Amino acid sequence: MHGSVFLLCVFAGVVSAQREGINLPPAVIQTALGCMAETAVNPEILPQLLNPRMYDKNSDKRVHKFLNCTFARMGYAKKNGHVRIDKVIDLFPKDMDGNKRAAVKKVMEECNKENGSDPAETTYKIFGCFVKNSPVK
Predict the structure, then answer these.
(1) For the whole prediction, is pTM greater than 0.90?
(2) pLDDT tens, 105-119?
(3) Signal peptide: which range, if any (predicted)?
(4) Residue 67 and residue 4: Cα distance in Å, rounded?
(5) What is the CATH number of the domain that holds 25?
């Protein structure tokens, strides 16, 4: 598997990053496209969401809002911006190595402690933390 699995939960179709082994709900692309229109995020930035360095410098609130919109509408984020870890873990292949699954869950739990000034920034910080620290590349 390539890239951040957490990212793939939401943006596989949008950033043309379909990865093997991820069970993506069909509504992901439609939801992400709707959130792109609603937040006016620049679509050219979406492939950069895989780059951990992006989270050290990006302060574009549209990106924050886009991530939160997509996660929340898909049911992967709560109203406060924190993610529903078990729901995201369910997207991983059932036959995934138990140690790897546990490592991914541990990183998600740690990243889910991040907080922003609003739900959109919270989702953005959690997402960035996972991209930076994911054991699945």
Answers:
(1) no
(2) 999 999 999 999 999
(3) 1-17
(4) 14
(5) 1.10.238.20
Helix/strand/coil for 79: coil
Give the integer Cα–Cα distance in Å for 59 and 54: 10
Token pair listed for 28: 């992901």
Number of domains in the chain: 1
The residues facing 77 across adjacent strands are 83
C-alpha distances in Å from residue 4, one per residue of 38, 39, 117, 118, 124: 25, 23, 25, 24, 14
CA-closest candidate to residue 7, choices 38, 44, 51 = 51
Q: What is the pLDDT of residues 4-54, one digit of tens each?
A: 334 444 443 333 333 434 555 667 778 888 999 999 998 888 888 878 888
- Domain of residue 15 covers 5-133
